[in-house]
Amino acid sequence: MKRIGVLFGMENSFPGALVERINAKSVDGIRAEFVHTGAVHLDRPPRYAVIVDRISHRIPFYRAFLKQAALGGAIVINDPFWASADDKFFNCALAAKLGVAVPPTVILPHKEHPPDTTERSMRNLQFPLDWDDVFAYVGENGFLKPVDGGGWRDVHHVRSREEFFRAYDESRDLCMMYQKAVEFTDYFRCYVVGQKKVRVMAYDPRRPHAERYVQEVPKGAAAKRLLKRIEQDALTLCRALGYDLNTVEFAVEDGVPYAIDFMNPVPDADLHMVGAAHFEWLVEQVAQLAIAKARRAPRRPGLHGAAGLGPSAPGGKVNKDTEPKKPAKAETPKQPPAEKKPSTIEAEVENAAAADEPMGSIAAAVPGSNQAAQNPMRTGKHPGAEAQEIRNHPDTTAGTEAKREGEEPAPE
Predict the structure, then answer these.
(1) Is-contact 223 185, C-beta < 8 A?
(2) Angle between helices 13-24 and 276-296 (to 10 degrees)
(3) What stretches of 191-275 show up as alpha helix (H) in DSSP?
(4) Using CA atoms, how far apart are residues 141 and 380, in angstroms rounded to an integer?
(5) Alpha-carbon distance 91 to 405, whole Å?
(6) Could you tell me the sign of the dihedral formed by the alpha carbons of 14, 20, 21, 23, in that order?
(7) Is the link from the previous residue into 394 a cis peptide, with omega within 30 of 0?
(8) Could you give all domains of the chain from N- to C-terminal order, each with its CATH number?
(9) CA–CA dist 11, 9 (Å, integer)
(10) Who contacts 224 (Cβ-Cβ below 8 Å, separation ≥6)?
(11) Does residue 42 contact residue 36 with C-beta atoms inside 8 Å?
C-alpha cells in the first residue's frame, strides 16, 4: 500500500478535504491519511510515498523530517530543499532572465547588524550607499518588504523618500528589498498545480482578506489575450522554480502583467477565504497530482532539490553563450584496456542521465550575476578602515521574524 500523507498545522478545511477526495477515488494500492510522526530515525525508510506539505516553513523539525523522507525516496509537494533556499529577490532576478515582466527591484543590506555580527563583519560593503541611484532606478513610490517574508509582515508602501527611510529605519536586521509600485488596473492571483494546471483568479490585495477573491475575471478579446499571457507566465515561473503547488500574482498596468509575488509554496487554501469554486478546483487538482506522483513512487533515493533549476530548466530559455559544449569523442584504441567498472559516484551520474533527471545547480540559473553588495547605513564612517569607528545601529523593539509566503492559515 502506498500512502499519501498530508502534513499541516492549524488549517482545517483543505487537509481534510484533500484526504477525503483522494480516498473517494478508490485507487488500488493508494491511500491518503494525515501524517503521523515522532522521533525520526536516521536510517529508517519513509512511511509515505508522497507527502503534501502545508506547515514545514513554520516548524524546523518538520522541514528536517521532509528532507530525510525525500532522501529516502518520498516525493514531497513542494520540494523541501528548494523551498528552504528560495527567496523573493532571486525570484525576481530569475523572472527577468525568463522574459517575465517584473518591476524594477533592488535588494538592500540590513539596517541593523544580523545576530552575532559586528561592524567588522561588514567590511566588504560599500559605504555610503548611493541612495540617489536606488531612487533613480526604482522611484519614490514603491514597496519595501523582506526578501524572505510573507503574510504582509513588515511590508510598507512608501510614496516619498521620507516615508522610505522611516520604514527602512524600522526594518531591524531584516534583509529588505525595494520594488517599484505598479499602478494596476487589474490584479490576478493564479493557482498553479503540477506545473501544468492554472486557475486565474481576479484578486484585490487592497481589500480585507475575506473579500479579495470575490471579483469576476474580465471578459472580451483583449482580456482573453491578457489572461493567456498570465497563464503562460505563471507556468514559466513555476516550471523554472520547480514548484508543484504555488500561487503567482500579477499586477496589470497599461496592459502589461507584472509578476509581483510567486514564492508561495504553501498558498492560501481556506474554503471560506478563497470561495467554494476555487477551493473545489484546488482540492481536485492536488488530489490528482498526489495520486499521479504516488503511482510513480518511490523516487530514486538521493538529493533532488532544485536539480532542474538552470538556463535549460523547463520553461526557461537556453543561453547558448553559457551552455556547456559537448566534449569531443575520444578515439577508440585498437586494443582497449580491460573494462573498468564505474565508481559509485560515476554510476549515480550515469543512472541520473539515463533517468533524464538533470543534475545542475542554483547558480546555473543566473550566470555572471556576481555583484557587489552595498551598505545600508546612511551616516557614519567608512567600515573598511578597521581603526575607524562606525555608528552602531540602535536596537529597536524585536518584532516577529519574517516568514516565507504561504504562512500557516489562521484557525477557521
Answers:
(1) no
(2) 50
(3) 221-241, 271-274
(4) 27
(5) 13
(6) positive
(7) no
(8) 2-85 (3.40.50.20), 104-181+370-390+403-412 (no CATH)
(9) 6
(10) none
(11) no
Segment 185-230, tens digit of pLDDT: 999 999 999 999 999 999 999 998 888 997 788 889 999 999 999 9
Structural contact between residues 361 and 310, judged by C-beta atoms closer than 8 angstroms: yes
Q: Name the stretches of the chain with pLDDT < 70.
A: 301-412
Nearest Cα neighbor of 229 from 104, 105, 101 is 101
Which pLDDT score is estimated for 335? 52
Distance of alpha carbon 259 from alpha carbon 144, whole angstroms: 16
pLDDT for the residue numbered 301: 58
248, 224 in Cβ contact below 8 A?
no
Written as one letter, the residue type at 15 is P
pLDDT of residue 66: 97
Q: CB of 307 within 8 A of CB of 313?
A: no
Question: Which is nearest to 285 in space by CA: 356, 197, 211?
Answer: 197
Q: How far apart are CA 67 and CA 55, in angstroms?
A: 14
Residue ranges in 317-405 assigned as alpha helix (H): 344-354
Q: What was the pLDDT predicted at 377?
A: 35
- In the prediction, which pLDDT does 214 show? 78
How many angstroms separate the CA atoms of 269 and 84, rounded? 21
Q: Which residues contact 204 (CB under 8 A, 6 or more apart)?
A: 187, 211, 212, 215
Measured CA to CA, the distance from residue 33 to residue 51 in angstroms comes to 10
Q: What are 136's three cell numbers? A: 533613480
**DSSP state for residue 126 in the 8-state scheme:** B
Q: Which residues share a beta bridge with 32?
A: 4
Name the nearest CA neighbour of 101 among 246, 237, 296: 237
Q: How far apart are CA 112 and CA 381, in angstroms?
A: 15
CB neighbourhood size of 182 (10 A): 22
What number of CA atoms fall less than 13 Å from residue 354's CA on the CB side?
Answer: 7
pLDDT for res 359: 31
> Cβ distance 256 to 96 under 8 Å?
no
- What are 182's three cell numbers? 505598479
| C-alpha to C-alpha distance for 252 and 233, rounded to whole angstroms | 13
Calculated CA dihedral for residues 68, 72, 77, 80, nearest 10 degrees: 30
